[in-house]
Amino acid sequence: MRRTAPQFRRRPRAALVRRGVLGVVAGYISLLSGCAIYHAKPLPTGPDLSRAPVLTVPVGAITVPGVKPEPFDLAKGLTETNVVTLAVVSNPKLKAIRLQAGVARAQLLEAGLLPDPQISGGLSKSSLFTGYSATLAEDIQALITRGAAQDAAKAHLNQVNLDILWQEWQVAERARELYIETQALAKLRGVLNERRQLLERLCHEDEVSLRRSDVTVSDVTADFMAWKSAETAWRTFKLKDNQTRHALNELLGLAPGVQLRLQDTASAQSITPAQYQAALAALPRRRPDLLALQAGYHSAEERLREAILAQFPLVNAGVTKARSAEEGIQSIGFQVTLTLPLFNRNRGPIAVGHASRAHLYQAYQARLDETTSEADQVWTAVGIMRHQLKTLDARLSGFEHAAAAAKESLTHGTLSLADYASVDSNALATRAEEIQLRASLEQAQAALATLLALPI
Length: 456
Description:
single chain; alpha+beta; four-stranded antiparallel sheet; 10 helices; disordered N terminus
């Protein structure tokens, strides 16, 4: 009976151990069933460009100040607001950039998750007993640095959102510039075409007059060179028009062949010196890229704080339950694993944190300096172009009055075509110059508004 008694008791205990192990395995498999599963996502094989502009966006979806979606009629044409709104919503690059916010949100989720507990165990067997040990432990160090990691991730998410907003502002500005340029090219088309046709007509008449010896070779050569200059300007215009049209379609996420009709609703945003100085002083509180750098600096400070907290002794604590295989004695206890800060002391991450913070500090200062310089340059250019446009408008008024009088004299036969062409060609050339200068001024004003973070 002494021999069989221990064997009789050992079997149910071994069975219980096996059941416990199987239960742990089953629980682990159950946990795995709730894990994420990888699914492959192949890259696209062709462009994803729209064949027509579509705008179905609520007002709250537009974050660029001053831009509010409005209905549009393709038959009447798109307004400046339509073009800016379509650009902010449909630009392919902005769609990709906005997904960065999802990455930052995932990083914030990761920073707030508690570390998973660790389970370790083992089995041993003797002729009398089956022994086992099981330990449940938790990383205490991760709990100490969790707050700083969360604050750093929140600041990073704020930085990403502000960076996206700044990208949207820049796309909106680019849309305004292309809209202004497209409108200017539409006006320029008629002026340049009329001038080249007039000079071409004059050259044909010069050929007839030259055969009759009514004009000199030098006169004909001068008229021919003027015609060639007009033809060169026309070819340059055609290339510029093609480039601008494709750039606008690309910005709006439209296929290259889409022909847009635009309304003439561009409005120059004039800024007074007082408004300029006030906006310049408020840049650190208003411009998204500067606010993003501030958020990045705050994130770096929190990362540094996390690294400093992690320099203290690493602690891993847990509970252990065991039974010896020799005597069958059961025990339960508490264990702590402590890493002594003798050699490492987390000095590497701390040094990286200090260097990153110093870099971001200087990067913010450099961006602020650069912004102030750029704003002053554009502000000065706007003043120069305003003065030039005022002078050019006065000269153009005189040329157009002279061209109107010359046309009337040509109709009555009191003025030759050569004299009329000379007067009208000057007026048309000046008109083309005025259109281009006015467009440049409006584009500079749009760029200045963006630089100063003013609502559109």
